[in-house]
Amino acid sequence: ETGVTQSPTHLIKTRGQQVTLRCSSQSGHNTVSWYQQALGQGPQFIFQYYREEENGRGNFPPRFSGLQFPNYSSELNVNALELDDSALYLCASFFTGGGHYGYTFGSGTRLTVV
Amino acid sequence: AQSVTQLDSQVPVFEEAPVELRCNYSSSVSVYLFWYVQYPNQGLQLLLKYLSGSTLVKGINGFEAEFNKSQTSFHLRKPSVHISDTAEYFCAVSKYNTDKLIFGTGTRLQVFP
Known about the structure:
The structure holds 2 protein chains of 2 kinds. Chain A has strands at 5-7, 10-13, 19-24, 31-37, 44-50, 53-57, 64-68, 73-78, 87-97, 100-105, 109-113.
């Protein structure tokens, strides 16, 4: 148990549809980031939220959007899905305490667009 | 801008042999350096990190890495690997503690009996 939970674990969507991926982290995890990991590639930074405000964005189009909520959960929304959006989506929250320092990743959501 | 190069896409090795996974980075500013491991169908687990101080960093599962500023490298080593070490390993950098992570393309470590 990493303290970061993502849902669902797997998802199949049709091209053109919209999808919402969810991430839940523990109290005190004020910074949350989302990454896209295509097959055989390293994770690519999508965006980051700090205290419910976006404070960093990677090279992804506006159809990728997010939200962070006061209860330390967050969402990644993708509109007008394309085949190339098929990937593992990872949520990571930043945490210090108990000897830990740095980002903790969830297990990811595997999105397949057909 | 920062970038990370992992020089080997695959590293095959026999069980109990030593292994080194290479990572070079490019940055005009000081960076933090990380190694993560990813087992099949799972997320990323932090192996170790360099933030400052001693250039030799020890992590979990017997792994260690050495930060070399002059060569801009952060190679990962283990003196004796196990079958269970078979996984994908990612090197990453960030400019500061809560900055985004920039990952390399990964190295697939395959340990054979």
